[in-house]
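Thread amino acids onto this structure.
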């Protein structure tokens, strides 16, 4: 189709025109009223003709496309176009020498009827025949007559409703006729692939929808109902609103549509559906003005017990007539209106108009009668009085003194500025086109912005026979004109606002936010500006008045949940019940709780989590102070004992105690006390290594030394009666080697433990509110690591029991026995306490520290307190004789004879008394143990077997049938 049109075009366009015309033939021939309206138009000749489409009459009911009542806004917009045309034609700086004519038609607020009316513009284009094939009788070139319908329209201003603009734009684009709408805001009109010659001085509804959602969010409403009109304006507008609302978590309770041919029953049904959602008290209207009024009428008929709060688009805007008789229902309504300034000169223009001096507007007489509620006299027939003769009989005659003013309800319509801007946009584009095509020098600078306007002139300028419009200008392609000139205009309009188009042909988005309020101390109402929107909302909530309410009303299905609670959906998307998260959970989103995870705890607002304080034994804690005090006292006592032993290193008492093993045992006790500080220190890899080595090795040092001592005593006194052989491995060097070997086993076990379970730290979570830093040691593995020490303790205890009845001068074994009994009791009590307090790390560590210190203290006190007592308080007793003292150890003799008895050492036997064969009836034998205290061995004597005597002193134990006699010291070597 386009190819046919671009090349030559006439046959194809005729087919398009014929098919379009036939499609809407019923509307064209639908009745007398329609036929009458078809023949009425505003036609003013000019060098360039601009078409106009305005809703002069309201939409008709039934088969009639036009209603009997004139539409106030449509008449004002029509007059605004005529006003702007007059100003442009009398502006010496804009299109000088060129007159713009008009051809304005009534759309009757109906899209199909508007399309039929637009066929007149297309028909004029088809009449623009190629005159090159004709020749006048005087051989001159033929010219078409200059009037509004003899030539094609260069562009069209209109329509008002988006549905009208959609239909008309689809037709005009086929004939390359550009179009500017002063009121159509449907989003789809920005689609240049479909409406490539459409522009508008208003923004698309996308911005208005965003503004409406901003208002809803500012009121903190989350649950609203919507009503929209059938047609592109309502459908595209509410679609954009729903999309924006959904993205911003505003839910739609009910979405109702007003059909084009809706009656009162339909509107009553819509209100009934709204009332079924009582929590959705906010109602968004994206409707035409007449639909908005009928919705309010239905609400009034419903006699609402609780008012609805209206939020309306610019279809309602700030119209006063729309609310006549419905003020109490509409009070508190929030409406959006394109931000426009009052053109005071236009008000003066309108106030001087009368049916007598405004004959160029064939509908002005009807507007006059409707405004003043009067009828023109019979003499005024030439002014086209109202055709509704039945109502005229009840009207008074119109007075010649009547004038439009605020007293009779006149108020400048909000789209007036945009109509004037549309006319001036065409004028500036044509001016630039004229400069490029019709003049050799661009005196006005081509793309110059015209900011200065001539003084207002309202009279009609006659068509200049000597037009400055050149043929190239008249034949310039409309599509090129739209892209190269119309979209590039930029100027300051009569109200001081900037006018320009973006690449989609849309105007700048600026809105006023209005509130319908009752006047103070009056029964009247007004629209009060409470905010503005230009990319973002600025709203003064303090000035908003609500219907029958003092505070901001609530429009929500369910109230917001408190901190730490989530929503559980029930029915509608904005209806829910609130459910609490667990104490350790945070609100991940409004429907989900999430676990913070180990070591984390939610903030009081439950929006995120923070890390819990890591707990470990603090040095200032009572649980740490008590074991540290015990450890310090123990370390002090141990050091004192070591110092005393060092000072008395060569005294009989220290030598009799076995110096090497005593120092080893004291070192083990010191290590055990020091373990307290490793256990209480903050867990690190280093402190954890010390814990593993210190506890196990410290105990193994103590109990290995004790085991070596008790084993030596037991072997000496239990082998004397069995063998005279010298015992092996009882020298001090041997004892140290044995002790070291036993300690090495524990060291090896600890090394293997560290390989199997590498040392480190870990976090322990006894419950969700605690994080405890511990060494990475499992309780059971710690128990197994001490199994070797338990074996040593058990063996030591067994040996202590076996050696409990030896002579008194060997009574260290009794102290060892008491030490082992007490140690067993301590550890039997420790194990259940330790494992039973696993959830209290402080008690567990304190118990372990005290148990270790007690074990060391028992060994220290039981084994060394008698010796320390002698060293400190009775040094006079630290001599060889007292050291060798013993009591009688008796037992019944089971054998008699004069032969010698083996010594307890197994070294030798010496017969004492009479000769071997001269007995007196009882056999007396003697057994000697060689031991010496301070002097070197004589005659090659061997080391003493006694654990409490030095190895060069000998003790002789006499035995007869009555029992053992007190031993006597001797230095003679046994035979």
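Threaded sequence (975 positions):
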């Amino acid at each position: 189709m386009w190819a046919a049109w671009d090349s030559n075009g006439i046959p194809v366009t005729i087919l398009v025109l014929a098919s379009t015309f036939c499609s809407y033939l019923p509307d064209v021939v639908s009745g007398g009223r329609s036929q009458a309206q078809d023949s009425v138009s505003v036609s003013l000749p000019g060098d360039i003709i601009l078409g106009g489409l305005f809703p002069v009459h309201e939409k008709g009911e039934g088969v009639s496309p036009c209603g009997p009542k004139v539409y106030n806004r449509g008449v004002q917009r029509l007059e605004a176009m005529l006003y702007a045309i007059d100003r442009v034609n009398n502006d010496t700086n804009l299109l000088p020498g060129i007159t713009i004519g008009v051809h304005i038609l009534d759309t009757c607020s109906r899209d199909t009827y508007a399309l039929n009316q637009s066929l007149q513009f297309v028909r004029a284009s088809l009449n623009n025949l190629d005159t090159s094939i004709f020749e006048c009788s005087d051989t001159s070139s033929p010219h078409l007559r200059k009037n509004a319908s003899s030539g094609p329209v260069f562009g069209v201003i209109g329509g008002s409703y988006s549905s009208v603009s959609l239909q008309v734009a689809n037709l005009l684009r086929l004939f390359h006729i550009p179009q500017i709408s002063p009121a159509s805001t449907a989003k789809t009109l920005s689609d240049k692939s479909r409406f490539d010659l459409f522009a508008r001085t208003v923004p698309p509804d996308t911005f208005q929808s965003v503004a409406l959602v901003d208002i809803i969010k500012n009121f903190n409403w989350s649950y609203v109902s919507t009503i929209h009109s059938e047609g592109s304006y309502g459908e595209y507008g509410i679609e954009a609103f729903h999309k924006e609302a959904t993205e911003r978590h505003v839910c739609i309770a009910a979405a109702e549509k007003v059909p084009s041919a809706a009656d009162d029953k339909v509107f009553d049904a819509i209100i009934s559906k709204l009332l079924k959602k009582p929590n959705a008290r906010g109602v968004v209207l994206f409707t035409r003005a007449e639909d908005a009024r009928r919705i309010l009428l239905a609400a009034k008929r419903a006699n609402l017990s609780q008012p609805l709060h209206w939020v309306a688009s610019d279809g309602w805007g700030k119209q006063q007539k729309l609310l006549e008789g419905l003020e109490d229902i509409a009070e508190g309504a929030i409406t959006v209106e394109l931000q426009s300034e009052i053109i005071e000169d236009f008000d003066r223009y309108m106030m001087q108009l009368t049916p007598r001096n405004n004959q160029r507007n064939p509908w002005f007489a009807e507007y006059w009668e409707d405004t003043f509620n009067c009828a023109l006299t019979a003499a005024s027939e030439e002014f086209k009085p109202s055709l509704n003769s039945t109502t005229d009989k009840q009207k008074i005659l119109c007075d010649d003194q009547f004038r439009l003013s605020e007293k009779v309800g006149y108020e400048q319509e909000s789209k007036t500025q945009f109509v004037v801007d549309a006319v001036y946009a065409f004028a500036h584009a044509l001016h630039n086109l004229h400069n490029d095509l019709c003049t050799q020098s661009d005196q006005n600078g081509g793309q110059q912005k015209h900011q200065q306007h001539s003084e207002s002139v309202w009279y009609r300028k006659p068509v200049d026979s000597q037009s400055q419009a050149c043929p190239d200008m008249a034949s310039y392609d409309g599509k090129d004109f739209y892209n190269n000139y119309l979209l590039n205009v930029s100027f300051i309009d009569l109200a001081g606002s900037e006018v320009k188009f973006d690449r989609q042909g849309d105007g700048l988005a600026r809105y006023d936010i209005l509130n319908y309020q009752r006047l103070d101390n009056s029964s009247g109402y007004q629209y009060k500006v409470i905010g503005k929107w230009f990319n973002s909302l600025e709203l003064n909530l303090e000035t908003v008045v609500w219907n029958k309410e003092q505070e901001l009303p609530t429009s929500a299905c369910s109230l917001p949940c408190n901190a730490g609670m989530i929503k559980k959906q029930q029915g509608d998307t904005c209806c829910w019940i609130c459910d609490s998260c667990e104490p350790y959970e945070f609100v991940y989103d409004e429907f989900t709780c999430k676990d913070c995870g180990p070591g984390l705890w939610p903030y009081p607002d439950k929006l995120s989590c923070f890390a819990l304080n890591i707990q470990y034994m603090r040095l200032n804690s009572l649980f740490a102070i008590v074991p540290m005090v015990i450890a310090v006292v123990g370390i002090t006592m141990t050091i004192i004992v070591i110092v005393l032993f060092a000072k008395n290193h060569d005294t009989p008492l220290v030598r009799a105690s076995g110096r090497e093993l005593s120092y080893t045992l004291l070192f083990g006790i010191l290590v055990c006390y020091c373990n307290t500080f490793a256990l209480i220190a903050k867990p690190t890899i280093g402190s954890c290594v010390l814990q593993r080595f210190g506890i196990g090795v410290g105990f193994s040092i103590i109990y290995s030394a004790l085991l070596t001592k008790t084993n030596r005593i037991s072997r000496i006194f239990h082998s004397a009666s069995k063998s005279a052989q010298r015992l092996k491995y009882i020298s001090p060097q041997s004892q140290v080697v044995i002790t070291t070997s036993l300690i090495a086993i524990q060291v090896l076990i600890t090394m293997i433990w560290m390989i199997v379970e590498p040392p480190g730290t870990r976090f322990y979570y006894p419950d969700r509110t605690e994080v405890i830093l511990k060494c990475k040691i499992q309780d059971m593995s710690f128990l197994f690591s001490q199994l070797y020490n338990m074996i040593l303790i058990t063996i030591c205890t067994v040996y202590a029991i076996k050696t409990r009845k030896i002579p008194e001068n060997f009574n260290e074994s009794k102290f060892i026995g008491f030490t082992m009994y007490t140690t067993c009791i301590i550890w039997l009590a420790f194990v259940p306490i330790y494992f039973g307090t696993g959830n209290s790390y402080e008690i567990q560590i304190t118990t372990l520290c005290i148990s270790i210190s007690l074990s060391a203290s028992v060994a220290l006190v039981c084994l060394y307190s008698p010796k320390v007592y002698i060293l400190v308080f009775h040094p006079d007793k630290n001599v060889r004789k007292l050291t060798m003292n013993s009591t009688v150890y008796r037992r019944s003799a089971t054998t008699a004879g004069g032969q010698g008895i083996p010594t307890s050492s197994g070294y030798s036997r010496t017969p004492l008394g009479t000769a071997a064969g001269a007995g007196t009836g009882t056999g007396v034998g003697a057994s000697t143990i060689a031991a010496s205290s301070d002097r070197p061995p004589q005659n090659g004597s061997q080391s003493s077997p006694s654990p409490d005597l030095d190895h060069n002193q000998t003790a002789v134990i006499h035995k007869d049938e009555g029992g053992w006699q007190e031993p006597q010291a001797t230095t003679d070597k046994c035979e």
